[in-house]
């Protein structure tokens, strides 16, 4: 006998890039698993940077799986959502009307069946949209780090329940004239995939704090690209050689300086620091770039950097690697979050430590607290990749299912 459906989760997805497409594929492929759990994820809308595809009746139906599969193929090929015209029962809206239609869906569903707004984009532009959705009672799941790391976010206020592992309040204060509150109830927001892709970093930190055990320090290698680069240098390879190999393997951004500059790690560190209650912005984090300003994007093209600029960094990096090795240490690119502040950059670490043993593109995070003072809680695993990140997003969506239970 089929398991009765206990929870229906309507979803609107913002962003059809690599993570967004993998998320849609995961939702489709997991239908049998979720059906056995009595859960149905109904994708009622998908938006890219210019348009929105939305089901004709968001109350009773979603975009069918065949359409979602074709949508993923079309976006992978670089085609617009409009290329799907005639392939199903849906409506297509272009910006700026598309944004108002997302709000319409939030208004319609937020206070009735509920709605999960999923941000897999890579822009700050979704912040006000999410604020409006929250005002209408919607839930939010984020893979996009930028809404949580904006220059004007001043404080992440968290109050923890003594009897549960849930954070009761999570309030982000941004520009007063833009919005005062993004989220008033942590139960309705999930952002695990903003740090460490699918690794349970956010959940682990919040569980420790919720237990009354104050977190004193977090040290983490949060870039699969830089983790790979630094571990390969131990074998005596040249920095330029390793970076080019990482690019050929698809580990880096199209311009490797986007990784080597350390800003992606800094954003993840900022999210963790704010989770611990630190009132800081990205400008308060000391970030060490692995290339000097004279080799920056405003001075050299990506091609010139790879062909002529990168080699100039070999000698200096080789000297630092050898110096660390002479002291029995290795170099790792890490974030360090303590009560005194937050910094991101190269650090010498013992070879036999969890971070020192790191090889390849894994992420490793060490969490120190009163209970984990001498032996930190260590989280390690794949911390990058569209597939892994999308799996983390799907897990976050499923974690909201009890808020969407059908009433008898």
UniProtKB/TrEMBL annotation:
Cofactor(s), by name: a metal cation
Catalysed conversion reaction: L-homoserine + NADP(+) = L-aspartate 4-semialdehyde + NADPH + H(+)
Entries under InterPro entries matching the protein: Bifunc_Aspkin/hSer_DH, HDH_cat, HDH_CS, HDH_short, NAD(P)-bd_dom_sf
Gene3D superfamilies: Dihydrodipicolinate Reductase, domain 2, NAD(P)-binding Rossmann-like Domain
Keywords, ordered alphabetically: Amino-acid biosynthesis, Methionine biosynthesis, NADP, Oxidoreductase, Threonine biosynthesis
Record: residues binding NADP(+): 15-20
Ranges for domain Homoserine dehydrogenase catalytic: 200-398
Active site: 268
Source organism superkingdom: Eukaryota
Binding site for NADPH: 145
E.C. numbers: 1.1.1.3
Key word Cell wall biogenesis/degradation present: no
GO MF annotations in UniProt: homoserine dehydrogenase activity
Top-rank EC class of the record's enzyme: oxidoreductase
Pathway entry: Amino-acid biosynthesis; L-methionine biosynthesis via de novo pathway; L-homoserine from L-aspartate: step 3/3; Amino-acid biosynthesis; L-threonine biosynthesis; L-threonine from L-aspartate: step 3/5
A GO biological-process term: methionine biosynthetic process
Residue positions binding L-homoserine: 253
Pfam families in alphabetical order: Homoserine_dh
Keyword Amino-acid biosynthesis: yes
PANTHER family according to UniProt: HOMOSERINE DEHYDROGENASE, PTHR43070
Family recorded in the similarity comment: Belongs to the homoserine dehydrogenase family.
Name of protein: Homoserine dehydrogenase
Taxonomic path: Eukaryota, Viridiplantae, Streptophyta, Embryophyta, Tracheophyta
């Amino acid at each position: 006998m089929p398991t009765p459906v206990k929870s229906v989760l309507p979803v609107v997805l913002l962003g059809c890039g690599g993570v967004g497409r993998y998320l849609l594929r995961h939702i489709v492929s997991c239908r049998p698993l979720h059906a056995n759990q009595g859960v149905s994820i109904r994708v009622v809308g998908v938006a890219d940077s210019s348009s929105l595809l939305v089901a004709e009746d968001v109350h009773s139906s979603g975009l069918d799986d065949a359409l979602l599969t074709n949508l993923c193929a079309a976006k992978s090929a670089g085609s617009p959502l409009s290329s799907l015209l005639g392939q199903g029962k849906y409506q297509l809206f272009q910006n700026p009307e598309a944004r108002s239609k997302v709000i319409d869906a939030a208004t319609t569903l937020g206070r009735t069946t509920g709605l999960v707004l999923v941000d897999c984009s890579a822009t700050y532009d979704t912040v006000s949209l999410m604020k409006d959705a929250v005002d209408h009672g919607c839930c939010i799941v984020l893979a996009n780090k930028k809404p949580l790391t904006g220059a004007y976010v001043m404080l992440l206020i968290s109050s923890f329940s003594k009897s549960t592992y849930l954070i009761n309040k999570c309030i982000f204060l941004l520009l007063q004239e833009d919005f005062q509150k993004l989220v008033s109830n942590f139960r309705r927001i999930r952002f695990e995939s903003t740090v460490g892709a699918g690794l349970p970093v956010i959940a682990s930190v919040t569980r420790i704090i919720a237990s009354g055990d104050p977190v004193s320090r977090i040290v983490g290698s949060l870039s699969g690209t830089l983790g790979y680069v630094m571990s390969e240098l131990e074998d005596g390879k040249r920095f330029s050689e390793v970076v080019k190999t990482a690019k050929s393997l698809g580990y880096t951004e199209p311009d490797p300086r986007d990784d080597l500059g350390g800003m992606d790690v800094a954003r993840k560190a900022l999210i963790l620091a704010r989770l611990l209650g630190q009132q800081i912005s990205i400008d308060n984090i000391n970030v060490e770039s692995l290339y000097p300003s004279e080799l920056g994007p405003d001075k050299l093209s990506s091609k010139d950097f790879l062909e002529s600029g990168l080699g100039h960094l070999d000698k200096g990096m080789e000297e630092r690697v050898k110096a660390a090795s002479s002291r029995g240490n290795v170099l790792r690119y890490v974030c360090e979050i303590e009560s005194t502040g937050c910094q991101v950059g190269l650090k010498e670490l013992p070879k036999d430590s969890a971070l020192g043993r790191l090889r390849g593109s894994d992420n490793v995070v060490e969490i120190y607290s009163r209970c984990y003072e001498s032996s930190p809680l260590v989280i390690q695993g794949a911390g990058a990749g569209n597939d892994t990140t999308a799996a983390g997003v799907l897990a976050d969506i499923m974690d909201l299912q009890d808020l969407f239970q059908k009433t008898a």
